[in-house]
Design brief:
Order of helices and strands: EEH
Largest sheet: 2 strands, antiparallel
Number of helices: 1
Shape: elongated
Oligomer: single chain
Structural class: alpha+beta
Distance between the termini: 34 Å
Helix content: 10-25%
Strand order of the largest sheet: 1-2
Radius of gyration: 20 Å
Length: 60
């Protein structure tokens, strides 16, 4: 994460103030995350939503 700061002379600075990490402290910037459940996109119906609902039902 970055924040913009302004100094007394009116100059602006963008500084990195935080980073996104996994629970194991691995950096994910520029890499991203792999989903637990991968679903191919299908136009006929919302397969991703159906898979997500089934997954959540199993978690209850």
């Amino acid at each position: 994460m970055q924040q913009v700061f302004k100094d007394q002379q009116g100059n602006y600075y963008k500084l990195t103030t935080a980073e996104y990490l996994t629970r194991n402290k691995n950096h994910i910037h520029g890499i991203g995350l792999t989903p637990n459940i991968e679903v191919k996109k299908v136009k006929e119906n919302d397969v991703q939503l159906s898979e997500a609902i089934e997954y959540m039902k199993d978690q209850l």
